[in-house]
Automatic annotation (TrEMBL):
Residues 114-313 form the 3-octaprenyl-4-hydroxybenzoate carboxy-lyase-like Rift-related domain. Residues 18-82 form the 3-octaprenyl-4-hydroxybenzoate carboxy-lyase-like N-terminal domain. NCBIfam families: UbiD family decarboxylase (TIGR00148). GO terms for molecular function: lyase activity. It comes from the Bacteria. Keywords: Lyase. Pfam families: UbiD (PF01977), UbiD_C (PF20696), UbiD_N (PF20695). This is UbiD family decarboxylase. Transmembrane segments: none annotated. InterPro entries: UbiD, UbiD-like_C, UbiD-like_N, UbiD_Rift_dom.
Amino acid sequence: MTEPLLSLRSHLDAVAGFGELRTVRGAHWDLELGGIAELSYRLPGSPAVLFDEIAGYPAGMRVLTGSTASPRRFGRTLRLGDDLDDVGVVDALRGKPSRWAAAARQFPVLPVDDAPLLANEVPGEKVDLLSFPVPRWHAHDGGRFIGTGCFVVTSDPDTGVHNGGCYRMEVADDGRGVTLAVVPGKHGDQNIRRWFEKEGRAPVTVSFGHDPLLLVLGGTEVPHGISELEYAGAVLGERVPVVTGPDTGLPIPAGSELAIEGWLRPDHLREEGPFGEWTGYYSGRRRPNLAIDITRLYHRDDPILLGAPPGKPPHDYSYMRTVMKSAMIQDELAASGVPGVVKAWAHESGGGRLFIAVSLRQRYAGHARQVAYLTAQCPAAAYMNRYVVVVDDDVDPADLDQVIWAMSTRSDPVQDIEVMKRTWGSKLDPLSVEGEPPFNSRAIIDACRPYERLDTFPRVAESDPEFLRELAAKWRDALA
């Protein structure tokens, strides 16, 4: 059988083809997979790691980490090219998110009756998720988390529009069930709450292994009302084939390795957490959480789990989120009509959310503050942002040294730092207080030269870039 669209195995073949895949055999599911993955993120080139012959499991049952953690792998994931560097992938992505969003509805999902996923079907009462090599990723995690690179499908009960999200999921009931830690306010959470209000339960399907394009889209803010599966079709230029779950009526990507379907109920809860999160801290304490009543499980022969364990940056998807969020923020600023925006960058050290810098060409008094406030609350950046810094166009917002230099020399704390209060935060925030609503605050830092002093502000002490390029060419041997 030909591999379906969005097959993880096709992605692995591509990654192996350009030399960025390493295989580790014999590691233990308890902490060793997570620790080896963490070490791999710090290696030059940060390779993808495929774990096989995992202790206690037969050969062929594998776990992949680091699927998008390099420009070549991320470029391949977004079908931008297989040979891009950091600059190339950013340039290739510029303007694409808005075009993909606009085209998404031209690519409705394509229901199919056959897929490798259907090779094995297990009824709900016989499900054992621990028959697969589910890792315990971090030393203080509350359990084994099968959902880190997952793709969770819910639907709007009124419109039928599907949503695909990526949420952490801990195995419960000795393998018979799994929790679903949906993020309050996200589209998946809104769908589930509406189903609860209308029907008293909510349908859900989950894929645990697939092309990492679905991980990318499930972990970013695709505009409301657009299905991530249709958005994926726009990226691919083809309709995404799906298997329709007979119990829930919801789609499952036909390229999935392992998937479940079932129902959520407000009173069906299991203990969950803590978990080492993308902020770099363990979040919360062990507490009751929504759990899926699994009605069916499907899997390919020798399925591959897609792992994406977060942690202190850099982690599995911090590079991906940084590049994707930066492009989405820049697109949204352009769509707002505000002029002069040159580049936006959601820094990896802030998890791609907490620290955002934007460069602009100032055109009028108040321009810098306008861009800062729009950035802080645009849909792509509104969730759990903490700092927005605006800089002039001679500063690269992706270079933290340059951003800090601009903050240190062009901003007056009394005049140029403003604070927005009671904004959209998260219980994942290490500063959040248990039992209180998850508001946060965010600082706006205007690190641009004062508009009224643009003509008189001290000149930067550096050579003309063109002159430096000429010197570099002339004195190449001496500077080598």
